[in-house]
Design a protein that fits this description.
The complex is a heterodimer of chains A (about 260) and B (about 160).
Chain A (H helix, E strand, L loop, with lengths): L1 H28 L5 H15 L4 H23 L8 H39 L2 H7 L4 H39 L4 H11 L2 H28 L5 H31 L2
Helix pairs in contact in A: 1-6, 2-6, 3-4, 3-6, 4-6, 4-7, 4-8, 4-9, 6-8, 8-9
Chain B lengths: L1 H27 L10 E7 L11 E4 L2 E12 L4 E9 L10 E6 L6 E6 L15 E2 L1 E3 L4 H14 L1
Parallel strand pairs in B: 1-7, 2-6, 5-8
Antiparallel strand pairs in B: 1-4, 2-3, 3-4, 5-6
The chains are: A mainly alpha (about 260), B alpha/beta (about 160).
């Protein structure tokens, strides 16, 4: 009987958690827009969340593109198809690696920081003080961070893909001697604007939404102790990474499976 | 001052993001090429289409003039019927044109090769909704081997 009760409690907790997360999100993003007040906050968060993530995104994008070029070449050259290196690099970056790796890096680099920041605000009762001053912490603290994450991650994914394609070009054409013209023209004929580029952007928008939401919720609901903050930060990275990989399979099946 | 600096960096960040999009869109991707403009529809019946797919190109002498839009079985004998969109820029193909399923390279994708027919006072041009009757099917490896073995057996 006890184990049945525990099972029931787990399920109710999970459903209540989803409900609370949704309530937090709706409270943060729905309301009268106040562009004069919220725009500077948004820009400040864009700087923290987006601009400061640029270095890790650019460096990992370049190296992943170069590795793709190298690995792809060694496989394709066996079939005499090294001309297809361009589409291989571009398609794997635009469809999969760009959105997914960016989201994973983003969850580790920016998501954990968001959780820790909001968690510490809660632990030091800054959120309660805001409420005391009749400032809604959801609108003042959570909303700008949510929008900044939602806007900056697709941009980061695009930069990641572009740098990665350039990295693949550097290795493939500069080092391994794939013909430069064939590299770009075969890529152009194989990569479709709508099927590949737009689907990749849609993927990264979904990941941006989910990762930022998870990070903010974990911080907002964390236990206001130092142990609680550390638990919430870990949980952000784990939950967000699992959500990204799971969603990626579903989205890929929907977009390219049929 | 601090806020102005972060404004500049955010602006730069957005510009770089848009540049990345432009780079991918112009350098790596292409739109739906020929069939972007106005098109007209042609049909063709084959005995066997091999591994022809929807969106496979239709080429005249290697130049893409259109794409396959639908593949289905039609008629009482269930023959493969291919529907294709051809760009309006090329609307003077004669009715005697022939269509064959070809393969790009040894292992490449299959595409439709359109061979324009002769033009005469007595033959018209292909209009929207017309069917090309002169078609050649895809080469199927097993059938080729079978024919080869059969002709070997006769000798």
């Amino acid at each position: 009987m006890d184990s049945l009760a525990r099972l029931g409690a787990t399920v109710t907790d999970a459903v209540a958690g989803i409900g609370r997360a949704l309530a937090m999100l709706l409270g943060a993003i729905i309301g009268k827009p106040t562009p004069r007040k919220s725009w500077p906050l948004f820009v400040q968060q864009m700087y923290v969340v987006g601009v400061l993530s640029l270095i890790i995104i650019v460096v990992s994008g370049l190296f992943i593109g170069m590795v793709l070029g190298l690995q792809g070449y060694t496989i394709l050259v066996d079939y005499g198809a090294e001309q297809s290196l361009g589409p291989m690099v571009a398609l794997s970056l635009l469809r999969e690696l760009g959105p997914v790796v960016t989201a994973l890096l983003f969850a580790g680099r920016a998501g954990s920081a968001l959780t820790a920041e909001i968690g510490l605000m809660k632990a030091t009762e800054q959120l309660s003080s805001l409420e005391m001053m009749a400032v809604d912490p959801l609108r003042r603290v959570v909303a700008p961070r949510f929008w900044a994450g939602f806007v900056s991650m697709p941009l980061l994914a695009l930069i990641f893909s572009a740098v990665g394609i350039y990295g693949g070009y550097l290795v493939g054409s500069g080092w391994l001697g794939v013909d430069e013209g064939a590299f770009w023209s075969v890529m152009q004929s194989a990569v479709d604007w709508r099927d590949d580029l737009m689907n990749g952007i849609i993927k990264s928008l979904v990941f941006a939404f989910v990762v930022t939401w998870i990070a903010l919720y974990k911080g907002y609901r964390c236990e206001p102790t130092s142990a609680g903050i550390s638990k919430a930060t870990t949980s952000t990275v784990v939950t967000a990474s699992l959500a990204i990989l799971g969603l990626d399979f579903i989205l890929t099946a929907l977009m390219f499976g049929g | 001052m601090e806020s102005r600096k972060s404004h500049i960096f955010v602006g730069l960040f957005v510009v770089v993001g848009v540049l990345a999009l432009l780079f991918i869109a112009l350098r790596a991707a292409s739109g739906s090429t020929v069939t972007a403009g106005e098109t007209y529809t042609l049909y063709a019946k084959f005995d066997n289409i091999g591994s022809l797919k929807v969106r496979s190109p239709v080429k005249v002498g290697g130049v893409v003039v259109g794409r396959v839009t639908e593949i289905s079985l039609a008629g009482e004998y269930y023959e493969p019927l291919v529907e294709m969109e051809i760009s309006k820029d090329y609307d003077k193909f004669s009715e005697t044109s022939s269509l064959s399923v070809l393969t790009a390279g040894l292992l490449g994708e299959q595409y439709l090769g359109l061979q324009p027919g002769f033009i005469d006072d007595t033959v018209g041009t292909l209009e929207d909704g017309d069917t090309i009757s002169d078609t050649k099917s895809a080469l199927v490896l097993e059938q080729l081997i079978g024919q080869f073995l059969f002709s070997q057996g006769e000798n």
